Amino acid sequence: MASPDADEYSGARSKERQDAHDSALRAKRTIITLPTYKKAVRGLLRDLMASEDLESFCVSVEQLNAAIFSWEVVKRAVIMATGGRKGFRETVSNLLAYGVGRIFSQKAAEQGFERILEQADDLKLDVPDAEHVLGTFMARAVVDEVLQPAFLANPIPHALCAPAVEHARTLLSADGAALSLELAWGSGAARDVSSLKK
Fold first, then answer.
1. Would you tell me how many other CB atoms lie within 10 Å of the CB of residue 37?
2. For the chain, which domains are there?
3. pTM of the predicted model, to two decimals?
4. What tens digit of pLDDT does each residue of 36-76 get?
5. ∠ at Cα 164 (161, 41), nearest 5°?
6. Which residues, 6 or more positions from 150, have their beta carbon under 8 angstroms from its beta carbon?
7. What is the DSSP string of 51-91?
8. Which residues have C-beta within 8 Å of that of residue 57, sequence separation ≥ 6?
9. CA 95 to chain centre
10. Distance between CA 4 and CA 137 in Å, rounded?
């Protein structure tokens, strides 16, 4: 016959398991809306622009608990950087390399870039060389293994903004493309991507 202490312990363990199960269910239900996620990401990117703290950014995105919208991180970051200074473009390229496989997947990165290319004509109104900048971002993302090379052969991106895709292909086909793209946003920008993830 079990002792009262054993029964009490068993009951406590059962309650702990139930509490953990209930917490997991609540976490699954707690998914913020896309507009709320967009607003949060914009704020985090403004903070990143000032701090360049990739780890803090990633932790904050993870805490949003909405991986289903993670393509928005790629989209919003690249759009903000396209119209920004070269230093922030480098920060965003580093963010993409640092965040892939953590706060967004390669598939989400592809989705994010497709959404960007859909808006290329609008971006050109404010940034005349937007197609050139977007092509450079895509080529750099291929070098950093954020995008698969096959993405640039996909007819969908090409149909959305052929000049940007063709510019990316041209950059990647050049001799010494990897090193050149490491320096795409200015001298002294090169870094070892693997070192960012340590």
1. 21
2. 32-186 (1.25.40.180)
3. 0.80
4. 999 999 999 999 999 999 999 999 999 999 999 999 999 99
5. 85
6. none
7. H--HHHHHHHHHHT--GGGTHHHHHHHHHHHHTS-HHHHHH
8. 44, 45, 47, 48, 95, 99
9. 7
10. 66
